Amino acid sequence: MPVxxxxxxxxxxxxxxxxxxxxxxxxxxxxxxxxxxWKPCRVMxxxxxxxxxxxxxxxxxxxxxxxxxxxxxxxxxxxxWYEAYGLKPKAASETPHTPVEPTISxxxxxxxxxxxxxxxxxxxxxCSKKLNLSQSEQAKYESKxxxxxxxxxxxxxxxxxxxxxxxxxxxxxxLKELLVDDKNIPNDxxxxxxxxNKENKNIIINxxxxxxKRGSFGVPTMFVATDHMYFGNDRMPLLQRRLxxxxxxxxxxxxxxxxxxxx
Length: 263
Fold this sequence. Notes:
By secondary structure, the chain is of the alpha+beta class. It is built from 11 helices and 4 strands, in the order βαβαααααααααββα. It has one domain: Glutaredoxin, CATH 3.40.30. The protein has a 4-stranded mixed sheet. Strand 1, helix 1 and strand 2 form a beta-alpha-beta unit.
């Protein structure tokens, strides 16, 4: 049975971008023995469970005192990861914020936040219900959506990725690129109706809550074979070692072996 790798991420997180751009390379050698399960979410739904006090009692003056050293390191660290992965963000030195149009109201920003994730749910629904794809084929189709959103936001500098028009265009363009029959390509109104549906919004909310209940405290978080959790882009070597164990490349008798013992 294939091993599942669940990738829980928020499109607004630069470290999620790093993990999402890397995970397919890490899992490629296992072929159909590993399934990538994408789970875009709103990181605040994780934080509401894991650190509700921090969410409700934020103190700007304390944040300001510690932010300079942290932000300086944060930017240097991100830039080095970008160089290592060969990624070229539009504004690599810019501290990222929730990617929404700055001229709209805060109420509208919060209403939109997560639309790109709910758009993924619609794309997933089309792949599974209308295109009759295998699990591995569906994962490859779904990754195109993830890459398209990140390309627009991170590489092209388009910040309004939760805009319903952007979500609709992204879904439509990918399906057209894949030569999907027009009858299976939703129009703008159908996309808007889907992403505004409360039940569909709850899917991504529950992905975040479920991750928190399983031990996640932020993004990106990867779960291998349900129980093994890896937080952060820099945990890829450990995640790959776990996949070696779960797929039988590394035998049970060798589980205690360090990753460097064969070097």
